[in-house]
Design brief:
Layout: H1 2-34, H2 39-54, H3 57-72, H4 80-105, H5 109-117, H6 122-152, H7 164-175, H8 179-205
Helix pairs in contact: 1-2, 1-4, 1-7, 2-4, 3-4, 4-6, 5-6, 6-8, 7-8
Length: 210
């Protein structure tokens, strides 16, 4: 049982890690597009964020997996994990984008003006002055989303992806035992504890007031 569930744990961890790698930078791009001077870009970005946050993640996963077949008649063989990954990345990028946007807009205008007086370009101002402060401000919110992501990986079972939760259900049903659920619960708890611990250490490292 443990050997079988360990495979599911590895799949869960891979989905979690790849989602973070894709959604964190994509969220920043979406946040910057959300603040674009071009009206059409802002409208499209708002629509994307609204759809991603306004519909269930499970529904999005089903749409990404079955959509190519029903809309275009394409074969979806081998498309299961890529569809899950695309669904998770696009969904979480929308949430991270709003967190980033809130952090950027919370910065005083005076910092931009001071940087301009010192001769910084807009890119230098954002990367060297604004972004480091934004990261510190948004870290608690990002931590909450990352913890939610750990638990949301269980939604991949809707596409028969063999992660830890779906394997726990299968083993529990076949062995009529509750133990697989306990093991899965311990896994999620430990994973979230490690995330919280790691992000807490990172937040303390950025505490320049100490």
């Amino acid at each position: 049982m443990l050997s079988t569930m360990s495979v599911g744990m590895l799949r869960t961890c891979s989905l979690f890690a790849l989602t973070l790698i894709g959604s964190l930078p994509l969220g920043m791009i979406v946040a910057l597009l959300r603040k674009s001077r071009l009206k059409n870009v802002r409208i499209l970005t708002r629509a994307y964020i609204s759809v991603m946050r306004g519909t269930p993640l499970m529904l999005q996963l089903l749409a990404w997996y079955f959509g190519p077949y029903y809309l275009f008649g394409w074969s979806i063989r081998g498309w299961r994990f890529p569809a899950i990954l695309v669904g998770f990345i696009l969904n979480y990028a929308a949430y991270f984008a709003e967190i980033y946007r809130g952090g950027i807009e919370s910065m005083p205008v005076g910092q931009y003006e001071a940087a301009e007086v010192l001769g910084y370009t807009k890119v230098q101002t954002f990367l060297r002055i604004i972004l480091p402060q934004v990261v510190k401000r948004i870290l608690p919110s990002v931590t909450n989303e990352v913890i939610t992501l750990v638990k949301d990986t269980s939604l991949a079972f809707s596409l028969a992806y063999q992660e830890v939760f779906s394997l726990a259900k299968q083993i529990s049903a076949s062995q009529t035992s509750f133990m697989p659920f306990i093991i899965a619960g311990v896994f999620y708890f430990v994973a979230n504890y490690l995330v919280e611990f790691g992000m807490g250490r990172f937040e303390k490292a950025l505490d320049y007031y100490k």
